[in-house]
Specification:
- With about 375 residues, the chain is α/β, with parallel strands linked by helices.
- It has 15 helices and nine strands.
- The protein has a nine-stranded mixed β-sheet, with helices on both faces.
- Helix 4 packs across helix 15.
- The longest helix is centred in the middle third of the chain and has 17 residues.
Length: about 375
């Protein structure tokens, strides 16, 4: 595995093209007073795109990304981009951060500093981590996937190779959204390589193993079914006809923004006001990354590949923690989770949603410290 240093460098021509396309956006009609009832509100999106065109500073966002060490390599024939930020503390432990859709590894920028340099952010020396944050294949700066079969299971295999090459005998894993699924595959494929598994989302398909659900569990399952009925249209499209969707999103920046913004608003703990939780600049940095890398289609393909790669669920023997953020997509049941994971820690959070590292970074950092850093694990240190 050959690893090279990487910097995000978007050309002036690409930015000019983006601005020209935004200026020529053809806007759809919208029923008066409908707001977000039918999907992304056109008035909000027009305001966001006006800001994207006239005020958003991509070069500042680019500099924020390039402030951290980034690398690219090839694994399984696929380009893989990742941040690798080493702590100055000698007893720091490696921690793999895994994002999902419609996010990128930039989701974790707020928490990298507190993780690698805890003494400057209210923590102790024993809270130090080395951070590895890949862009999942098909997402962001990893670029589009170039062959069939890049499911979450295959991504986990690629990450095992990366971890080995970086010289870490064992790592902690934090996953959100698809990152939770990749992390679970890591835990079942190579449990000896993980010190622990920390999740903020559990599969909504989890059901009690070899028993009937309790009344409390039935309430959680009913709530999950209600969310699925109202909010899973995007997943149905991306898991069945992702290429059809890709033609629209890679040609229209406003379309790309609409597809992502609706999910950010629905999945954050924002009471309908998305920018009260995630700044407009952070939101547009994420959207611009999808646009500049042309990964709308390849990120959607992950849904398609996972549907084809379905396999029986295996019990996770790796010690597992779950941070339950109230504004996340699906509620979860600890008793059901314990049928499938070796649950050691379950933290009901007072606030926050699906994008915890952006919405409530301190709560997430505190939980990661509490789970991984309470007891030293010298086997997890890099060689």
């Amino acid at each position: 595995m050959h690893i090279e240093r990487f910097r995000v460098e978007v050309s002036d021509a690409a930015l000019t093209d983006l601005h020209e396309r935004l200026a020529r956006t053809r806007w759809p009609d919208q029923l008066p007073g409908s707001r977000w009832d039918y999907g992304t509100d056109t008035a909000y999106l027009r305001e966001l795109c006006d800001y994207w065109l006239a005020s958003f500073d991509w070069r500042a966002a680019e500099a924020g990304l390039n402030a951290w060490p980034q690398f690219v390599t090839t694994t399984g024939g696929q380009r893989l981009h990742f941040l690798h930020v080493r702590s100055a503390h000698p007893m720091a432990r490696p921690l793999l951060l895994l994002h999902g859709w419609p996010s990128t590894s930039a989701e974790f920028l707020r928490i990298i500093g507190p993780l690698v340099d805890p003494t400057s952010h209210g923590g102790r020396v024993g809270h130090a981590f080395h951070v590895i944050a890949p862009s999942l294949p098909g997402f962001g700066w990893s670029g589009p996937t170039t062959d069939f079969g890049w499911s979450t299971r295959r991504i986990a295999t690629a990450l095992i190779e990366l971890i080995e090459h970086l010289g870490y005998p064992r790592v902690g894993v934090h996953g959100t959204d698809f990152g939770s699924v990749v992390g679970t595959h890591l835990a079942t494929a190579a449990p000896e390589r993980l010190t622990g598994l920390h999740l903020t989302l559990l599969p909504s398909s989890l059901r009690p193993r070899d028993r009937e659900p309790t009344p409390e569990e039935r309430l959680v399952i009913a709530a999950q079914d209600a969310v699925r009925a109202e909010q899973s249209g995007y997943a149905a499209v991306q898991s069945t006809t992702p290429q059809t969707l890709a033609h629209a999103l890679v040609d229209s920046p406003a379309g790309q923004a609409a597809w992502i913004v609706e999910k950010f608003r629905s999945w954050t703990d924002c009471n309908g006001d998305l920018e009260s939780t995630i700044s407009r600049d952070e939101l547009l940095a994420n959207i611009t990354t999808y646009w500049m890398t042309g990964t709308a289609g390849s990120s959607a393909r992950l849904y398609f590949e996972d549907r084809r790669d379905a396999a029986p669920r295996r019990y996770v023997t790796v010690p597992t923690a779950y941070a339950a953020f109230p504004g996340d997509v699906y509620p979860a049941s600890r008793t059901i989770a314990e049928d499938h994971y070796d649950v050691r820690r379950w933290t009901p959070m007072p606030r926050g949603g699906h994008f915890a590292a952006l919405e409530t970074p301190q709560l997430l950092v505190d939980d990661l410290r509490g789970f991984f850093a309470d007891e030293p694990d010298e086997e997890g240190l890099p060689q």
